[in-house]
Amino acid sequence: MTSYLRRLLRTGAAYQLADAVSKVVALALLPIYTNHLTPADYGTAELMLTTIILVSIVLRLGLGEALVRFHFDDADPERRRAIARTATGTLFAATTAAAIVVALLAGPISSALLEADRPAVIRAAALGLWAFTNLELAYALLRVEERARAFATASLINVALTVVLTVYLVVIRDGGAVGLLLGNYIASAVVLIGLWTVERDAFGFRPGGIDRAHLGSMLRFANNPSYTL
Question: How is the chain split into domains, by residue range?
Fold first, then answer.
């Protein structure tokens, strides 16, 4: 029981560390950002951040939850890797297609969503949708594999890169809402690509990486959580 509690505390701390650090840093940088961003910039950025999260939930197709469920249902290491490759490969394809469509339709989307012609904001949000959605699944994979140190390292690197990039783009380059969005999501994209490189065996980008049988089961689970392999 004692060893279990130590493990729970250690992994829990690793998973929450970056979130706590990011909140402290955000509070410290708030006076700097308020001197370089207008209320309208903040409103636009917050609208885009919220929209990205909501669209991401739909775009994920329940694959993150299915990955967690089927990983713990199957103790075979190779089948676990096949499940991970199927989830990540499918999500990569879906998010890439969605991001391209959003970027191509940035003008009409900005007119409908922002009531203004600001396609650059929508293109930055398209990058955000791609990076955020894929990174969430990459983090989920680290969690199910109980790689707390790798998770904490990747998360802290993400926070550090976000701070550097947002300060540069918002304060130095005076990028406004676009700079704030790009600072957040370029950092996420860099960390994501780093995780894909380090954990390339678990990411299904090569031919045959997506197993249709596993994918069908995972999608059925997303619609019916009582379903199992």
Answer: 19-223
